[in-house]
Amino acid sequence: MKKTFTYEYEEASPGSLSYEISLEENERLVTLVEDGKPILYMNRPAMLTLAKLLIKLAEGPYEEQFHLHLRRDFGDGPDALTVMLYPDDVPVRAPYGS
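Now predict its structure.
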């Protein structure tokens, strides 16, 4: 079965990025470190929100090392995840927990 995913959005300025949460505001995003590895616990609405955010970041006018701090459940809670646009030709630091 082939599916199509269409996402239309307004392009932001190079220094900012916005995202929309569902009308029900039922996104669940929690990060934990288990056995030395970071784990993302997300429900489907949160996965769609993160996917749309990553599309905007990948396709937008953002400079390398532009980054986002995402909060638990995409709300007002503590920081849960940082996403950084990183250059292709620069080695990334050692994996978390190494």
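The chain is about 15% helix and 25% strand.
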